[in-house]
């Protein structure tokens, strides 16, 4: 507020100077206000830029202020916010298990703020575990192979000499041995680098091999098998692909065995496609309990099996640049390999 008495006491020249000074002050105020607005826009843009940098980080990231209150976090951090509860306000690096997953935590202090990152290392831990399990399985398979071979030879000799009434028991022994030999073969294949030896063969060649494998497999219920494979040529590693089909067949048999039905059906069919060889293996047995662990090695929900069948099958099909899909409308699997 300008004092009127003081203003009236000024001369005309002084008033002019005062007016000019007041105008310059007002103009400078506008300049400062404009600069402040520009600075505010720049600061907001800088904040957005920092948020974007934090957001694109593949790991979870939190920034806590000097009181330990959350100052900033990205979307990955929001998913596992409870992970940082109770962590010390200091620099550290440690592993932590949270919600069935493993994380590598790292904390640094910067200008009274604490920056914490969490990197999901679950897959790495899983691979380490699989390598360890695979090494043990391979060692055991090598150790078991020789005595099982001797037992198999003795069982074959015994089958020729025993009384006919005892032969069914010896036959069951041979089937059990065949199953163990097959598990050993699958384990050794899974734990070493897989190499395919492609050749041309006709698709219906699988039928005889699958029927022979079924004869060696023990099951108690009546199961009808339906093979609809045409006499068309394809290229691939026949022995390995045959192993895949047998794995799916045995899974189907086991599903029927574990169902409430007295009997069951298994279908192996060819689907017409110009670009791919497509096979469907379906059954009417027990539904799949946990689809999330279907192809996880050493995991199974069945009473039979060691959890390697589907994992090995996936390896083999992927080595052929193919895919295995779970069928949606009916219970079963689709095997797709490019022509």
Q: What does this molecule look like?
A:
This protein has 339 residues and is an alpha+beta fold. It has four domains: 12-54; 58-120, 2-Layer Sandwich (Beta-Lactamase), CATH 3.30.450; 123-192, Helix Hairpins (Orthogonal Bundle); 197-339, 2-Layer Sandwich (Heat Shock Protein 90). Helix content is 47%, strand content 23%. Strands 2-1-5-4-3 form a five-stranded antiparallel beta sheet. The chain has a five-stranded mixed beta sheet with strand order 7-9-10-12-11, with helices on one face. Strand 11 (323-326) and strand 12 form a beta hairpin. The model has no long low-confidence stretch (mean pLDDT 84).
How would you concisely characterize the structure shown here?
The chain folds into four domains: 12-54; 58-120, Beta-Lactamase; 123-192, Helix Hairpins (Orthogonal Bundle), CATH 1.10.287; 197-339, Heat Shock Protein 90. The chain is 47% helix and 23% strand.
Helix share, percent: 40-55%
CATH class of the largest domain: Alpha Beta
User: Structural class of the helices, strands and pairings?
Assistant: alpha+beta
**CATH topological fold name of the largest domain:** Heat Shock Protein 90
Q: What is the count of helical runs?
A: 8
Any guess at the CATH architecture of the largest domain? 2-Layer Sandwich
Average pLDDT, rounded to a whole number, is 84
- CA radius of gyration: 36 Å
As for the number of domains, it is 4
For the largest sheet, list the strands in their spatial order. 2-1-5-4-3
Q: Major sheet: size, sense and barrel closure?
A: 5 strands, antiparallel
- Contiguous uncertain segments of 5+ residues: none
- CATH homologous superfamily of the largest domain? Histidine kinase-like ATPase, C-terminal domain
């Amino acid at each position: 507020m300008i004092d009127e008495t003081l203003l009236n006491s000024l001369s005309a020249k002084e008033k002019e100077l005062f007016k000019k000074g007041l105008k310059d002050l007002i103009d400078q105020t506008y300049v400062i206000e404009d600069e402040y607005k520009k600075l505010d826009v720049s600061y907001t843009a800088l904040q957005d830029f920092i948020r974007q940098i934090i957001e694109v980080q593949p790991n979870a990231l939190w920034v806590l202020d000097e009181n330990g209150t959350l100052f900033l976090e990205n979307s990955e951090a929001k998913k596992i916010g409870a992970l940082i509860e109770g962590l010390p306000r200091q620099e550290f690096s440690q592993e932590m298990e949270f919600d069935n997953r493993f994380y590598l935590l790292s904390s640094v202090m910067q200008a009274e703020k604490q920056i914490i990152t969490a990197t999901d290392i679950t897959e790495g831990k899983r691979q380490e575990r699989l390598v360890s399990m695979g090494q043990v399985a391979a060692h055991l398979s090598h150790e078991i192979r020789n005595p099982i071979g001797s037992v198999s030879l003795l069982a074959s000799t015994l089958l020729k000499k025993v009384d006919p009434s005892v032969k069914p028991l010896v036959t069951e022994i041979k089937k059990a041995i065949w199953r163990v030999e097959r598990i050993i073969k699958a384990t050794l294949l899974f734990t070493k680098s897989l190499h395919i030896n492609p050749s041309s063969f006709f698709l219906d060649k699988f039928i005889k091999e699958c029927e022979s494998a079924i004869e060696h497999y023990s099951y108690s219920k009546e199961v009808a098998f339906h093979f609809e494979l045409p006499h068309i040529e394809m290229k691939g590693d026949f022995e390995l692909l045959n192993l895949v089909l047998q794995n799916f067949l045995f899974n189907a048999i086991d599903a029927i065995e574990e169902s409430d039905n007295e009997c069951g059906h298994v279908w192996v069919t060819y689907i017409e496609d110009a670009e791919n060889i497509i096979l469907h293996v379906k059954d009417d047995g027990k539904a799949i309990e946990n689809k999330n662990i279907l192809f996880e090695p050493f995991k199974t929900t069945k009473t039979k099996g060691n959890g390697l069948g589907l994992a090995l099958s996936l390896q083999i099909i992927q080595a052929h640049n193919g895919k295995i899909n779970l069928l949606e409308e009916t219970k079963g699997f689709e095997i797709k390999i490019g022509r």
